[in-house]
């Protein structure tokens, strides 16, 4: 099961950030966090993690939980994290949720369109997906583990 693979990846401390919702302009205003250029930045709601979420962490892969084999290459970095309104503490400690801003070098990936687009919307399995940010090393590991599950003799 893919959730078990993700749990193992997180426990090993590999770079791995999941999201289901990005913040709308209304959400950003409510949270009292800096406005963004939506072509280069997104804010995501991050529920919790078994690892700390640290300012400056870089990701070069984005993928949908529904189809990790169709991952895309990106160049993104966490450049803001907050636990509550109007703070920027630089870290979300393991076990906590918060808001993470990702800065994309080129442009925001189209895969982010699968995220819930406003915190007032409900997650709809027919149009939304969990999206993950990670590294090439981590996605290679995930795909290897999925292959093992599909073909136990491998």
Helices and strands in order, then pairings?
Elements: H1 2-11, E1 16-19, E2 21-22, H2 25-31, E3 41-46, E4 53-54, E5 58-64, E6 72-82, E7 91-92, E8 98-104, E9 131-134, H3 136-150
Antiparallel strand pairs: 1-9, 2-3, 3-8, 4-7, 5-6, 5-9, 6-8
Helix pairs in contact: 1-3
What does this molecule look like?
With 154 residues, this protein is an alpha+beta fold. The protein has one domain. 21% of the residues lie in helices and 29% in strands. The chain has 3 helices and 9 strands. The strands form 2 sheets. Strands 1-9-5-6-8-3-2 form a 7-stranded antiparallel beta sheet, covered by helices on one side. It has a two-stranded antiparallel ribbon with strand order 4-7. Strand 5 and strand 6 form a beta hairpin. Helix 1 packs antiparallel against helix 3. The longest helix has 15 residues. The protein is globular, with a radius of gyration of 15 Å. The two termini are 16 Å apart.
State the secondary-structure class.
alpha+beta
Q: In angstroms, what separates the terminal alpha carbons? A: 16 Å
The largest sheet, given as strand count, sense and whether it forms a barrel, is: 7 strands, antiparallel
Our count of helices gives 3
Low-confidence parts: none
Which word captures the global form?
A: globular
Task: Work out the radius of gyration.
Answer: 15 Å
- How many domains, as an integer? 1
| Strand runs, count | 9
Order of helices and strands: HEEHEEEEEEEH
Helix content: 10-25%
In order across it, which strands form the biggest sheet?
1-9-5-6-8-3-2
Strand residue percentage: 25-35%
Quote the average pLDDT: 90
């Amino acid at each position: 099961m893919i959730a078990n693979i993700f749990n193992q990846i997180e426990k090993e401390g590999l770079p791995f950030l999941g999201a289901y919702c990005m913040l709308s302009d209304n959400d950003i205003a409510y949270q009292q966090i800096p406005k963004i250029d939506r072509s280069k930045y997104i804010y995501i709601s991050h529920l919790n993690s078994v690892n700390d979420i640290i300012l400056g962490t870089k990701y070069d892969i984005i993928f949908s939980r529904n189809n990790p084999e169709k991952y895309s290459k990106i160049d993104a970095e966490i450049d803001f994290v907050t636990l509550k309104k109007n703070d920027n503490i630089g870290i979300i400690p393991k076990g906590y949720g918060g808001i993470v801003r990702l800065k994309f070098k080129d442009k925001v990936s189209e895969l982010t369109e699968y995220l819930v687009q406003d915190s007032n919307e409900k997650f709809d399995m027919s149009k939304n997906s969990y999206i993950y940010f990670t590294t090439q090393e981590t996605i290679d590991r995930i795909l290897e583990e999925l292959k093992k599950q599909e073909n136990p003799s491998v």
